[in-house]
Amino acid sequence: MSLIDTRTPDPKKFIPGATGDWEVVLGLEVHAQVQSKSKLFSGAATAFGGEQNDHVSFVDAAMPGMLPVINEECVRQAVRTGLGLKAQINKRSVFARKNYFYPDLPQGYQISQFDQPIVGEGIIHLDMPDGPVEIGVERLHLEQDAGKSLHDQHPSMSYVDLNRSGVALMEIVSKPDLRSSEEAKAYIAKLRSILRYLGTSDADMEKGNLRADVNVSVRRPGGEFGTRCEIKNVNSIRFAGQAIEYEARRQIAILEDGGTIDQETRLFDSVKGETRSMRSKEEAHDYRYFPDPDLLPLEFDQAYIDALAADLPELPDEKKARFINDYGLTPYDADILVVERQSCDYFEDVAKGRDAKIAANWVINELFGRLNKEAISIDNSPISSDQLGGMIDLMADDTISGKIAKDVFEILWTEGGDPAAIVESRGMKQVTDLGAIETEIDAIIAANPDKVEQARDKPGLLGWFVGQVMKATGGKANPKAVNDLLRQKIGIE
Question: Which of 26-30, 150-154, 346-350, 407-411 has the lowest mean pLDDT?
Fold first, then answer.
């Protein structure tokens, strides 16, 4: 990780201590599982689940004489990810052996990349409440995952599951440009969004397909970088934020007490909400990197890169800009919509030929709110984009009011059906007959002469009359017609 400071200190992000302000400096190493059917150097399956040691080839198990063969799809996905990060694609890269010993690493080394990665420097844009922030990406390299040690199946023994051994990972290393837990969480969320748009990783943290190693140090504002501690394998965005907050304050307390920070690797205990020491932090020389003799350098030409670049989808930043410019959405609404590619597609289907702001309001507030409440993904939404669009059409032509639309939404959610047929069969059309509305208004005005006088002095009381008319018509009266007629009859300009 580069130790070049590229950011000006921001007082809003300083952490107050007993002896003055402190600044947290963060860098992230995010490991994303490559979306491919087979592993990086073997034909074994990458499918999640299955019996232990069921997806293991002789290569993954490091059987003697078994040689690795590069998976072209993993290379393609890594290059596409680099292009999505606006990064430098290196036409020549080298695989290296990273030597260490652990029971779930059968070879005694991990095939990774060291000083010649497949992707160089890039950038990720974050839209933070205080303004935009640019976070540098130092590199992206390909490497194979290790297996998994199982410690909870026998009281005195540990087991090893090699299903993940050899699975292709992209390690995406940021520069130390992050200055708060909120920025770190936003960075992980944005990176996850980009990976999913590209289809290069499903980035599912619950399955372990996206994990973050968080490097934390503190310093006096603008001073020299402090000693960093690495928090390994954080598997949720929320936990990343909690781990950073705890670790930063732990380091500040040690320094203010006159102590020093040991460079080490730590784990985050999500139950206790604290980090704890795991081992001393290794340096690159501890791993004895050297080029893997079984793998030739990875080389491709510019035409290969250009062909992949031409086939990239529209990514979150570009999509957000288009939603603001073409649909007139606020940056806030656009931000919400572009998080997931499927959400964007749903919104655009609903907005097609309709008022985009109304469409966004219903998708964000009503649909997303209900999906989040019931923990349902947009792909499994009980209401299709055609159904929601049809309901909005009924509002646009005054067949139903906004209040009635919420009742229709509830029926669509629980029962399904065609919005127009539901409104017709259940007598839910709003009353637009001015004569009928006027009759109800006249009756209410006649019964409440004192409130009429009050409303003339305090026009805000008009809302009470609107409520009475809506109540009398079962909520079916056209609200605009009610408002206009009431103003006319009471004499409010």
Answer: 150-154
Instruction: State what percent of residues in the chain have pLDDT above 70.
Output: 98
Rounded mean pLDDT of 101-117? Answer: 93
- Comparing CA positions, the residue from 155, 151, 209, 261 lying closest to residue 31 is 209
Res 151: pLDDT:
81
* pLDDT score recorded for residue 277: 93
pLDDT value, residue 64: 92
CA 303 centroid distance within chain: 32
| 331 vs 129: CA distance, rounded Å | 11
Tell me which architecture the domain covering 434-490 has in CATH. Orthogonal Bundle (1.10)
Confidence class for position 348, pLDDT limits 50, 70, 90 = very high
Q: Please give the structure tokens belonging to residue 433.
A: 């007959």
**Higher pLDDT, residue 473 or 314:** 314
* Gyration radius (Cα) of the chain, Å: 30
Q: Which amino acid is at 475?
A: G
Count of H helices and E strands in the chain?
Answer: 16, 16
**Is the distance from CB of 292 to CB of 87 less than 8 angstroms?**
no
Are the CB atoms for 34 and 170 separated by under 8 Å?
A: yes
The CATH 1.10.10.410 portion of the chain extends over: 434-490
In sequence order, what are the residues at sequence separation of 6 or more whose Cβ sits closer than 8 angstroms to the Cβ of residue 277? 264, 265, 266
Residue carrying the six token digits 């047929």: 421
Asked whether residue 475 carries a pLDDT value surpassing 80, the answer given is: no
Residue 243, φ and ψ in degrees, nearest 5? -65, -40
* Neighbour tally for 455: CB within 10 Å: 22
Question: What's the CA gap between 279 and 93, in Å, rounded?
Answer: 31
Q: What pTM, to 2 d.p., does this model score?
A: 0.86
Cα–Cα distance for residue pair 317/126, rounded to 1 Å: 9
The SS3 call for residue 217 is strand
How distant, in Å, are the alpha carbons of 64, 232, 392, 395 from that of 352?
Answer: 60, 45, 11, 15
3-state secondary structure of 178: strand
